[in-house]
Amino acid sequence: MKKLFFTKNQHSISALNIMEWSGAMIAVVAAIMLALNVSISPWAFVLYFISSLILAVWGWYSGAYAIALQNVIFIGINSLGIYRWLIIAQ
Fold first, then answer.
1. Could you tell me the pTM of the whole model?
2. What stretches pass through the bilayer (predicted)?
3. What is the mean pLDDT of each run of 10 residues along the chain (90 residues)?
4. How far is Cα 18 from Cα 69, in angstroms, rounded to an integer?
């Protein structure tokens, strides 16, 4: 585990668990928003962006580098969604 931000103590484990679960739950809420296809559905890309950011950091500090890389790529994809559906759509 990298020692740039977290250290190996009880608090770091709790912080990583909070990041892992909050990133996952935010993505679930975003998926529900898109599936409902309502007027606020494009805002799901903002939630996906936040989720991907959290999970990329979590993956890095947890040593799950594949998940970290995947979420860095998702950050780019979600940025495109934000641009396409929230910025130029208006």
1. 0.84
2. 12-36, 43-61, 67-87
3. 54 81 98 96 97 97 97 98 93
4. 20
